[in-house]
Amino acid sequence: MKPHPLRPAALAAPLLPVLLAALSLPAAAQTPTAGSRNPVAQDLRFEGVWARPGSVTLIKQFPKHLVLQGKDEASVWSARCVLGGGKAVCRGHGFTITGYDFAYESVVTLEDGGLRDVWRAVFPDAQDLTGNDLLRAVPLPAFEPSRKTP
User: Which domains does the chain have, with CATH numbers?
Assistant: First the structure.
């Protein structure tokens, strides 16, 4: 079988501002208070925007789960992850720019101030791609709510 034609494309640039704006909450705004819906103190070390050249991953962290979305030159993917033991085990799906869909599996851990993502993409024809990426946190501007409090 021929390998899937994953051609690099300039997809990262148009979506990067959207991803950066999506999680632009300062740490104080993300920390739950006694009156919040989730009064349990959360460790939000996984939450944020993580990137390496040509790839960006957006993570929203919940007490026991992560939701992530990512993209690179050749594909986009999303997954839900279960947190436990200092890591997150993720399952999801994605699409390549050439129209192929794939199942996505990943184990995410924190390492040396970055995010280690050991992943696998499985295509319907049983072909798979694997990777082991170290992503770095992307600093975000402070969030200014557009809605005024009553």
Answer: 12-26+47-137 (2.40.128)
Q: How many CB atoms lie within 10 A of CB 95?
A: 14
Is it the case that residue 100 has pLDDT exceeding 90?
yes
65 contacts 84 by C-beta, under 8 angstroms: no
> Structure tokens of 37?
């819906």
- Provide the β-strand partners of residue 87: 84, 109
Residue 104: name the closest of 133, 69, 66 by CA: 69
Type of residue found at 87 = K
What is the average pLDDT across 45-74?
95
Q: Side-chain half-sphere of 149: how many Cα atoms within 13 Å?
A: 2
Say what the pTM is: 0.66
pLDDT digits (tens, 9 = 90+) for 4-26: 444 333 333 443 343 334 434 33
Contact yes or no for 5/97 (Cβ under 8 A) = no
Structure tokens at 59: 């993570």
